[in-house]
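Entry 14. Ran structure prediction on the chain below.
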Amino acid sequence: MNRLAHALTPGLSALRVAVFAAAGLVAAPGVASAGTEIFDFEVPNQPARPEVVPAPVLNDRNVDDVATFFAARKASDPNATLAVKIFERINNPAAINLFNQYQVNYVFADYETAPSSGGPSQGNATTLTRDLANQLDDTSSWSTLKYGNFEFRANDSKTNMHNLALYPGAPWSTNLSDSPNVRSALFAQPISRFADLTNQHLQYTNIPYVTRFNNWLNPQLDNVGTTADGYQYQTTNQLLSRGDFQAQVLHYRMRGADTVHLFEPGVVGYTKQQMQDDAIAGWNLPQVQQVFENPDFELAYLGETISVGTKKSPDQQDLNDGVVYSGVYTPGEKLFVLVSNLTDQARNDIRFDPVDKVAVAAGPNDDFYLASIGPNDHLLFEFDYTLFGKKKRWVPVGDPTPVFVDDERGGIGIPEPATVGLLALAAPLLARRRRATHGG
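Output, structure tokens:
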């Protein structure tokens, strides 16, 4: 069992929603959220959920616009989180000076090497990321700033935040030959990629980019027309349902994510509002909040494998085989384990290993617990810390609870919607480009 303490990220404060008008972008009060804030790569011309932190694009040409936005946001809520996205080299000293004028909390850089990015070459992404860090580390924001670049891990080029892309369907995180079916590959393989990072690096802020589907540059998941008319994957039962996406988000939280950064929804007819709703629903599943709200909570089951079977030394099964479990607990009190099975086979051999050196078992004479789960199910198991004389056990509380129940797994998956709606907006804060690595 791998167990590492999880520290809440400082700086995630109560949020005020931003309202985008045709003439520009104006901060307005909203309802403060009791849950963790999330980020969304797109800056829509409509109010987002109050939990979503707006992060405008900052470049050499729109410094005044970003400054106006920051001022309005802080006037509405002095504790509001400030974040920006940066796509290109910053040469304007006024842009860097914003980090002295305001205590900026997050910088999400997105440096990509042209010409695949569709723009003029600006240099190597590693160099650009380091150069920006060198510019920012002389500002008053630097001491508490969370700084990352798309697909970089903390400590790459002076970053201090993990920003991996966990896109179901992307060629770097979805290899269909490694999983029983498409659906289980879309679900388990991004979690396995995340496990490779978080199992050893929980000391850094960890905000992955997530989506429900993104098959950009993946011919394995293009079964409509040809790549010339766009990557499209049509199916009756192999996409992740909205419930599956909610479960995936909770697995990320149980494995060390501090929050998530949403990209495109990725399914025809699936809106950004629905995506935000689903991310919040998964992150804030009510049953587990009692543990996450305890400052002493810790994480369990962070590895890239799960235990199976009844042997004294259990067999290990790779997450890519389609069954995933993740856990969170408060020492000496309560343990929750979320188990997901996106294969077509029921399982009755899923074994929970000791947590905090305490066996997970039904009673004092048992040394382990075997869980059963049906195909395409998500179950939440609850355990209480119990003493039987000198023996300690995590004992199950009733039957497991089905969660995130949603069998609607048909539809058309795409890298991004054909009509985004942002392209008609002229406001400089809403600058957007098509980027090969993000999709579309």
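The longest helix spans residues 182-198. Will compare against last week's run tomorrow.
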